[in-house]
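Fold this sequence, please.
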Amino acid sequence: MAAFARQPGDRPESTVQANKHDAVRVSTASKGLSMNAPLSSRGLAAFALAALPLAVQAQSSPASPADEPSDAQQLNPVVVTAALAPRTADETLSSVSVLDEATLRRQDPTSVTDLLRGQPGVDVTTNGSFGKNSSVYLRGTGNDQNVLLIDGIRLRSATAGGAAWHYLDPRMFQRAEIVRGPRGSLFGADAVGGVVQLFTHDAEEGGPHPRISAGGGSFNTQRYSAGFSGSEGGTRYSFAGSHFSTDGTPVRRGGDDKGYDNTTALARMSHTFGDGSEVGVLALRARGSNEFDGGESDFVQQVAGVYTELPITAQWTSRLTLSEARDELDSLDDFGDSIIDTRTQTLRWQNTLDLGMHELIAGAEYSEDRVSGSNDYAVDSRDNVAVFAQGLLDFAPFAVQASLRYDDNQAYGEEVTGGLALGYDLDDRHTLRASYGTAFKAPSFNDLYFPGFGNPDLEAETSETVELGVRGQYARWFWDSALYQTDIDNLIAGQRGELTTNIPTTRIRGIELSAGAELDDWTLAAALTYSDPENRATGKRIQRRASQSLRLDADRELGDWSLGGSWIVQNHRYNDAENEERIGGYGLVNLRAGWQFAPLWSARLTVENALDKDYVTTRFFDGDDYLSAGRAAFVSVHFGH
């Protein structure tokens, strides 16, 4: 994936009609509301009953021709992550969700994980609240079996394997795309369950356009952010900074409050020349401190890069990207001082050939991981060389997407991954899709070399996934359903004090249902998810995964006011591989209100866990619960677009 992946609509020429038979791409001012869902017969019936009034109104009150394109763009947003190229949600032939700028503004979450929790196919666990260690599971796969991108640059810990979601400030991002299903043939290692891409704020026309926010609330929490963006003479720029601090809450019963602070800075610039060539740079750095049970840590999360894009011919565009991602952690606890620094540098060359209704993408990638710190790793660096190709073919009403990638890694050898997706337009509103894809997860440095439990003989995980889905796309609402099965060989697993091993076979089956609507002044979304992640050797559910979740979002505009809320429900999970430590399910209600009290000025109130539920998602090794925060209220004032 090219770094600094543009949001659709970055360039004027990317804005075209919404009808897929008239054009391949669509512009985005989008309010993507894609959500998916689980199923007992009772849950499915409730979902159908909830969606029925939307269907009746959509059919009985068709949009006028003038209104329909705008509504279609809001509910059928353009996605760039699923296929390395702009495609509307139904054209991606994938299960996708888009959380757009309006959604982020309305919900104004204190963490990225709060935004992702309960989205279609997404499960989240946290070791407490406010900056505490968090894991994001896509379709029952682990935190280290998914890929996180920030403007096209991958961010993860090369030692732990997964991303540190809890250190990212959601106010620094304008949009999120969630792609579920294997993407190994496009992104290489670890894209087993899917890919999440976060987009920073894009430059606006003219300017500079400033934006400022300030607020605070429960637990002595303070939040500030400021930025400006604009464009002039082919140059586009966006600069921003934010600060978050809180006294926090206890993570163990009877414990003290555990604080957290985070300061983030962003700089992004690009220039387009008269011949259509373009150069750009990006840098995002988050730095702060975090208290946990038994100690505290200082952290750095950073992505940076530079790219150049050249139009070789009218049909051929070549893009070269050099990027670096850093994950640094300095912890002091009862066992002493621990320093872990990981750095990944990547050079990627991607070529796009536009053949009218068809598109070919091919390229090569070289990356190097380096680790350093207080741990004595037997190996502290490794490199990876890859080549990849993809064809996006449109034979309306049929569509074909085929991709293939070859990776050669210094540590674990060669891997070949591929994907094939077929789509068929049943009519102008309904698209049927079927896909098959393979992926692999690379053993992390901790898996292979960490003193005490690293195992240098580990095999890379490999997976196969089949999926069948259908999407209904209308002027003012949509629905989407998907049925899938993922089979994983050599799942990497470890228990405290034991050598990390491979589990021979794991199977994950699941169903996702989602719907969204823009009706008069209402914005509605629903997601229902069922998954069955099973260790085939024992017949037990994989630890810390819920199998059922439901999320409902409803917001209404009332002139200068807006009111809304979210209801998130998940069933029980198990904290251990033997399924003996059961953690109960929970239901959360989050409320929000907004007031536009002057041009460009607004105030917002959010109340998280409004019913003050006592809930947990993980436990300490000694059996105590990691506590989540109770009711929390936050107020903020905002200026700008």
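The chain has one domain: 12-639. The mean pLDDT is 88.
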